[in-house]
Amino acid sequence: MINQQRNSCNELEFYQFIETFSNVEIFEFLKDIFETEKYNEKFKEIIKEYDESKINLNNLKKCFCSYIFNISTGIVIAGFNKEDMFPSYVSFNIIANVNNMLLYQDMDTKLNYSGTLIIPFAQTDVIGTYLSGINETLENEIKKHFVNIMENYICNMYDHINVEKLEKINEIKNQLTKNFKNNINSLKKDFYSPILESLDFLPREEIGNLAESLIQITSLKRKIDSNLESVGGNIDVALISKGDGFIWKKRNPYFDPKINPQFFDEKMNKNF
Q1: Which residues contact 116 (CB under 8 A, 6 or more apart)?
Q2: All structural domains of the chain with their residue ranges
Q3: Which range scores top for mean pLDDT: 8-17, 39-48, 177-186?
Q4: Which of 59, 66, 72, 234 is the right S-S partner for 93, CB 3.0 to 4.6 Å?
Q5: 33: Cα separation from own chain's centroid
Q6: Torsion sign (Cα): 205, 208, 213, 214
Q7: For 65-78, how does the pLDDT look when each residue is reduced to its tens digit (9 = 90+)?
Q8: CB burial of residue 110 (10 Å; 0-12, 13-18, 19+)
Q9: How many CB atoms lie within 10 A of CB 25?
Q10: Alpha-carbon separation of residue 10 from 14, 19, 70, 139, 154 (angstroms)
Q11: CA pair distance 6, 14, nearest whole angstrom
Q12: Are 55 and 15 spatial neighbours (Cβ–Cβ below 8 Å)?
């Protein structure tokens, strides 16, 4: 993962990439393992390949935790608590099974939520683009490009201004960068808000159609831009409401009904 990142960006971007893991949590079951001489030596070997003054050993370990997290299994549970008027959902990632103990990390949660939301899980890039008007990868690249422009501008001024002015310029640069990122987030929110407002007036069936269409768009994109068709096949759609409970809107059988008539004959016999 680290080598791939190093080969795909310049030196400054690479060390910024490692720094982004500074807020990642190191899983408890890995803390003792990381402290052993065997694993410490492995991390130190990786660091030797780069500028040791710019790469933090602890951040490298957090980078590894992030990699583990990315190959975890996500589970989402949604519906209504009996005592609640509005829907809830909880999501968490199962990371590993260590000595018969399930290791998981809590993710996003909304309980008895009365607002309007569209929440994509797993492969979220295409749905995120539809909702915000910009691809997340493209957005990050634009932000990085802006930061690089500002950094290069400051570097070119080193020989022409004194230290006091340089400190002031750095402050201005940081504020401009912050404002730029905030403006992008504000534009995304302006793009997203009308979509959420329209959901309040859609009938249940149309909401189900919207969910199915978003998955179909993701599936189409995967077929076009990737050799790995990780989203595809028939789509099941279900609606959960306070009054009706769990209702299948569209459920695809895992077998061909035409060549399995005995299944339906058995069900008919049981009903009678």
Answers
A1: 196, 197, 199, 200
A2: 1-71, 73-115, 129-197
A3: 177-186
A4: 72
A5: 27
A6: positive
A7: 777 777 788 899 99
A8: middle
A9: 10
A10: 6, 14, 24, 18, 18
A11: 6
A12: yes
